[in-house]
Design goal:
With 196 residues, the protein is mainly beta. Helices cover 9% and strands 41% of the residues. Strands 1-4-7-10-13-17-16 form a seven-stranded mixed sheet, with no helix packed on it. Strands 2-5-8-11-14 form a five-stranded parallel sheet, with no helix packed on it. Strands 3-6-9-12-15 form a five-stranded parallel sheet, with no helix packed on it.
Length: 196
């Protein structure tokens, strides 16, 4: 297991770069600038990509991150010294028997700033009690696991969540924070049954 440093990485024309310490001797890949324009960057659960410059992902680019647990070293991540500019697709894959639970958080990207969002997110199914929550913060991107009826994201299902559901009842094109517990885009009685 070792470290590898390069000046720039450009992934184009359907190319794939995999960071996988279980198969390759690369424990950490350090690059000057990373640009994923029309290919895939795969980071396995123990992989880390340190970017000394910026990270840019275009609309045709894909970032695939593997999760094997919620502790550092159990999920892939990219640490960027400068700016992160996002488009394209994020795909999350689970390793082995790992089943995320409410309260798990995975900070998959960090940098000096984050602009844009992934155009699409391919997320593995969770048990009916849980939902994924993407957080696009000023300097990081994190993926959280919440209880399906925890509409305000405070870690518990309580009267505050019921109030959120009531105030949004009847809304269509809704998301989880509006009170949509089952992910059908509606706030209705089915979501109330999940809250109970």
């Amino acid at each position: 297991r070792g470290d590898t440093s390069v000046t720039s990485v450009f992934i184009e024309n359907g190319g794939i770069v995999t960071v996988d310490t279980a198969v390759n001797p690369v424990g950490q890949l350090t690059v000057g600038d990373a640009n994923v324009t029309a290919g895939t960057l795969q980071i396995d659960a123990s992989g880390v990509v340190d970017v000394d410059g910026s990270y840019t992902q275009s609309q045709a680019g894909m970032l695939q991150i593997e999760l094997a647990g919620d502790a550092p070293g159990q999920f892939g991540r990219i640490d960027v010294q400068d700016a992160i500019d996002l488009e394209g697709t994020l795909e999350i894959v689970l390793d082995g028997l790992f089943q995320p639970q409410a309260g798990d958080q995975f900070q998959i990207l960090s940098g000096s700033s984050v602009t844009g969002t992934f155009d699409s997110e391919i997320l593995p199914a969770l048990s009916a009690d849980f939902v994924w929550d993407m957080e696009y913060l000023a300097t990081a991107v994190a993926l959280d696991v919440l209880y399906a009826a925890d509409f305000n994201g405070d870690g518990s299902v309580d009267d505050l969540d019921l109030s959120q559901w009531q105030s949004s009842y009847g809304l269509s094109s809704a998301d989880h924070s509006d009170g949509d517990a089952n992910g059908d885009g509606l706030v209705n009685g089915l979501d109330f049954l999940v809250w109970q």
